[in-house]
Amino acid sequence: MSFYDVLIVGAGHAGAQAAIQLRQMGFAGSVALLGDEQEPPYERPPLSKEYLAGDKPFERILIRPHAFWGERDVTLLLGQRVKRVDAEAKTVTVGDDSEIGYGKLIWATGGTPRLLTCAGSDASGIHSVRRRDDVDAIMTELASVNHVVVIGGGYIGLEAAAVLTKLGKSVTLLEALDRVLARVAGEELSRFYEAEHIAHGVDLRTKTMVDCIESTDGRATAVLLADGTRVAADMVIVGIGIIPETGPLIAAGASGGNGVDIDAFCRTSLPDVYAVGDCASHANGFASGAQIRLESVQNANDQAKVAVQHIMGQESAYDAVPWFWSNQYDLRLQTVGLSTGYDQTILRGDPATRSFSVLYLKAGKLIALDCVNMVKDYVQGRAYVISGALLDQAQLADASIPLKEVGLA
Ligand code: FAD
Questions:
Q1: Which of 13, 21, 301, 333 to mutate for ligand 1's pocket (most ligand atoms within 8 Å of CB)?
Q2: What does DSSP assign to residue 267?
Q3: How far apart are CA 33 and CA 368, in angstroms?
Q4: Mean pLDDT to the nearest integer, 171-196
């Protein structure tokens, strides 16, 4: 049985950062990074952006060049999936039933795309956008595809719609709720992005429920809607969220529900087992201490650092301010803070200029900003989100006053 002082399960953003951080901090023990994909760690955000557009080859989205891992003495165990964890014996079991022992285990397994469950959803031509394989399959089929139906108006669905439109495809986007980005942003931002997509030719339909998928010879040919409408499709892309990959850890006794529960140092309830990234449920100070999962590169990297620091004997609790970005057309959205629970929004600038910010306040405090082509607000607003300052609202709304010059209320 092989043994590693630190075994990292999941070779995505969080897993890669954990391995990098261990060596950066001078960890001298053995480190293995085990993942079920065939590729060394790569960046996921470009999958719905530059990689899908064909603007960046795969080699350019690798988190580190191939040689890096060997040079840092990090063993890559790729194409292997952990199916069982024995927290007492401190072993994991992989697909071929071989066991690997660990001193410390870092669980960094991300999530699996939620799939359609309606009739016909097993047809070919229906894709998620989570892994390189997914996007390669989409790109292989695209040449013979004219009409794409995207199901889900979250960031991934919208980004895919933007790229496909740019590639000359006709795109219909279906969203069940009454606006896109409803779970993550305020109405001003949703309406702005809806208008942008419509202006770029996307047939965007909100309050639209999917009934089933129609297929011919096993391949999807249309999406039937609950109201009886039929939308023809040569390809269907589904972006309706992820389910955290926590099965083996929960089966081993780790506490969790929507994700594995971790404390401020990313420890799970199992001894010597940490969890980081999309799969980890934590109490977040920027969400008033609510237990949440964050799905962002920032969180994956920051939690990986916190877990490694703890392994190295440095107790530094996770308190990073959440941030996120999304690229659609020529629009760069940068988000800082968490808008959950906001009771007021302030619009800075005019959306018609395609450069503006939406500020989210709760009991007068600035808790988050969505900045569209507005880097300055993003950079300057960050400090206020961290300090929780009560600011002069008239000045906040005046885009001619730089945020850093806004006075206190
Ligand atoms: P992942 O990067 O998903 O890595 C987990 C790895 O573990 C995967 O390789 C998975 O296959 C593997 N795995 C799972 N179970 C097992 C198992 N049992 N055994 C072995 N291996 C296993 N975030 C942003 O901040 N900005 C963006 O613009 C942005 N865009 C995105 C666009 C797309 C298309 C996607 C999919 C995500 C995007 N994200 C973005 C989110 C960001 O990529 C994720 O938050 C980040 O990848 C999380 O890192 P992670 O390491 O937790 O999970």
A1: 13
A2: B
A3: 35
A4: 97
Give the residue carrying structure tokens 């808790």: 367
Exposed / middle / buried, residue 314 (Cβ in 10 Å: 0-12, 13-18, 19+): exposed
Residue 349 phi/psi, 5-degree rounding, is 90, 175
pLDDT tens readout for residues 268-284: 999 999 999 999 999 99
pLDDT at 164: 98
Name the residue among 191, 235, 177 with its Cα closest to residue 358: 191
405 is written with which tokens?
Answer: 């010059």
| Ligand 1, pocket residues at CB < 6 Å | 9-15, 34-37, 44-45, 47-48, 81-82, 108-110, 129-130, 156, 245, 248, 277-279, 295-298, 300, 324-326
Contact 48, 160 (CB under 8 A): yes
pLDDT band at 76, cuts 50/70/90? very high
Q: Which residues pair with 212 in a beta bridge?
A: 119, 224
Q: How many other CB atoms sit within 10 Å of the CB of residue 312?
A: 13
**Ligand 1 atom nearest 48 alpha carbon:** 34
Residue carrying structure tokens 């999304």: 326
Q: Outline where 78-186 has alpha helix (H).
A: 132-142, 155-166
Task: Look at residue 178 and tell me whether its pLDDT is greater than 90.
Answer: yes
User: 81, 129, 266, 296: which to mutate for ligand 1, most atoms within 8 A of CB?
Assistant: 296
389: pLDDT strictly greater than 90: no
Beta-carbon contacts of residue 273 (< 8 Å; ≥ 6 apart) = 85, 87, 104, 105, 107, 249, 254, 267
| pLDDT at 124 > cutoff 90 | yes
Each residue of 138-174: b (16+ CB within 10 Å) or e?
A: beebbeebebbbbbbbbbbbbbbbbbbbeeebbbbbb
| CA of residue 153 to ligand 1 center, whole Å | 19
What distance in Å separates the CA atoms of residue 160 and residue 87, rounded to the nearest whole number?
40
What is d(CA 197, CA 171) in angstroms, rounded to the nearest whole number?
10
Order of strands across the sheet that contains 290-292: 256-257, 259-261, 280-284, 290-292
Would you say residue 388 has pLDDT above 90? no
